[in-house]
Amino acid sequence: MQYILAVQTGGGGMGWLGIAPLIFIFAIFYFLLIMPQQRRQKKWQGMLEKLKTGDKVTTSGGLRGTIMALRDDCIHLRVPPNNLLLEVTKASVVQVSTTEEPEIKTK
Question: What domains, with CATH codes, occur in the chain?
Answer without folding.
Answer: 51-99 (2.30.30.100)
